[in-house]
Design brief:
Elements (H helix, E strand, L loop, with lengths): L2 H20 L5 H26 L12 H6 L1 H8 L1 H21 L16 H22 L13 H20 L5 H22 L3 H17 L3 H24 L3 H11 L10 H4 L4 H11 L7 H10 L4 H4 L6 H9 L17 H31 L5 H11 L3 H4 L2 H32 L25
Helix pairs in contact: 1-2, 1-4, 1-5, 4-13, 5-17, 6-7, 6-20, 7-8, 7-9, 7-18, 8-9, 8-10, 9-10, 13-17, 14-20, 17-18, 18-20
Keywords: Membrane, Transmembrane, Transmembrane helix
Protein name: Oligosaccharide repeat unit polymerase
């Protein structure tokens, strides 16, 4: 089998998504282009590197997959990418159909809350609360990292989510009168998300911040300079993440990493830190080796998806964790995971293949696309909790590397954050109402001979 055929099919599908997205108004195209870039790193860049270098699997290097190396990179990559190519073309079909439909619809106006004088103040208050949660997590040593099964302190972890949500909201909606102030605020928020990216060892915060900048430009208007700036923020952010992580490594660990990277061509070495953080090819390999079925029935998947929206305190039992189940049961079918406890990103197409074969891939592709459209509408809502949900989706990985089960788990957490954000907004609005200076009463001049007696009104 020739793996280049599958790679070309995937490349054409992603190019179709990008071309269709560029014809769309509003912010939906931002996420569609971001999805194409994200999936290209997992399903194009990594396979091409493996086919070119054919590296031997070794400890500390997750770019080569031992299963693909043992099976043979040519045949292995061709087989594990079959359902991915099918799913991406299904997704591209949804995108093209929507692009043709939306061209006849009226253009989206500015977000409803962008003119609310209390909106930015509420986001700033939420950011302060979230920073307190982040600081408390760092001080108590309970910061959760990427792939961890359980948070050491779920309350602080939940509060810290508010900082991410509100930071993205401020990047999108803050409108100071002076351009220099805008640059300082957005630059400070980006640095804060980059630092938090390094602390939690996850690429998601800085990617969310780059997306927020892109959404801001999509609302205010694009230029070539703005497009280049967004791409630079994303690349430099992930590269800066690797650099910040290296500051915490010992000299021995740095030397070991340099030795591992030296086995790759010099042209590829600068990009290895990025490629190692986009691992959906491993999830596609998991799905191929496991095969369709024998994991969850459709009824079990639906029940777990619905219960994910209910807080654990109300549910009275531990909720199903799809990332952990994927690691233990799906990847565990081909890799020894008995001594490893981790939560993995499965990807929508891979989850769909395991749940229901190629029909399952189509269903999961449709779910992701509908979720993207709902996210785009949420940012334009006039209701603050709905906007919080949209901002939370912007800062999550649900639309990039999670399936239906993982996305519903994220939505469950974000619903609770939306409720807390709504309570904060009530407090901020009441405080600003009480402290806002009242205009002086307007007195009308009394004409000669006129009476000052007030006439009765039916509304009194």
């Amino acid at each position: 089998m020739n793996p280049i055929n599958e790679v070309l099919l995937i490349a054409l599908a992603l190019a179709t998504i990008v071309v269709a997205a560029t014809t769309m108004p509003g912010v939906a195209r931002v996420f569609l282009i971001a999805q194409a870039a994200f999936w290209s790193l997992s399903y194009l860049a990594r396979p091409l590197v493996l086919l070119w270098v054919r590296p031997e699997p070794r400890y500390g290097d997750n770019v080569p997959d031992p299963r693909l190396a043992e099976f043979g990179y040519d045949r292995g990559i061709a087989l594990v990418l079959e359902h991915v190519a099918f799913g991406l073309w299904v997704y591209a079909g949804f995108v093209v159909a929507y692009a043709l439909w939306v061209r006849r619809r009226p253009r989206a106006e500015l977000p409803a809350l962008s003119g609310d004088p209390d909106f930015v103040a509420t986001l700033a208050a939420m950011y302060g609360v979230g920073l307190f949660g982040r600081a408390a997590s760092i001080a108590t040593g309970t910061v959760g990292g990427a792939g961890e099964v359980d948070s050491a302190n779920p309350i602080l972890s939940f509060v810290a989510i508010l900082a991410t949500i509100s930071a993205l909201g401020l990047i999108i909606f803050v409108r100071p009168s002076r351009p220099a102030t805008t640059v300082l605020i957005i630059g400070g928020l980006l640095l804060g998300e980059l630092a938090w990216t390094a602390v939690v060892e996850s690429k998601t915060p800085i990617i969310g911040a780059a997306l927020a900048v892109a959404i801001r430009f999509a609302i205010l208007g694009w230029t070539r300079t703005k497009a280049v700036s967004v791409a630079a923020i994303a690349v430099l952010g992930i590269g800066g993440f690797g650099w910040l992580q290296s500051l915490k490594q010992t000299e021995y660990a740095k030397a070991e990493a340099a030795l591992t990277d030296s086995s790759y061509p010099p042209l590829i070495q600068p990009f290895l830190s990025i490629l190692r953080r986009f691992d959906l090819l491993e999830a596609a390999t998991d799905a191929y080796y496991h095969g369709p079925g024998f994991w969850l029935t459709p009824a079990e998947a639906l029940r777990n998806a619905v219960t994910s929206l209910v807080p654990s305190q109300l549910l009275g039992t531990a909720k199903f964790q799809s990332g952990t189940a994927w690691a233990q049961e799906v990847r565990g079918a081909s890799v020894d995971m008995t001594k490893v406890s981790v939560s993995l990103a499965e990807g929508n197409l891979n989850e769909g293949y395991v749940l229901g074969g190629y029909p399952g891939v189509a269903v999961c592709a449709g779910f992701t696309f509908l979720l993207l459209l709902a996210w785009g509408k949420a940012l334009y809502s006039r209701y603050y909790p709905v906007v919080v949900l949209g901002l939370a989706m912007t800062g999550s990985s649900a639309l990039f590397e999670r399936g239906i089960l993982g996305s519903m788990e994220n939505l469950g957490k974000f619903l609770q954050a939306a409720v807390l954000g709504w309570l904060i907004s009530l407090l901020v609005r009441e405080y600003r109402r009480r402290t806002r200076p009242q205009p002086p009463p307007v007195t009308e001049p009394v004409l000669a001979g006129a009476t000052t007696e007030k006439k009765a009104s039916p509304w009194d």
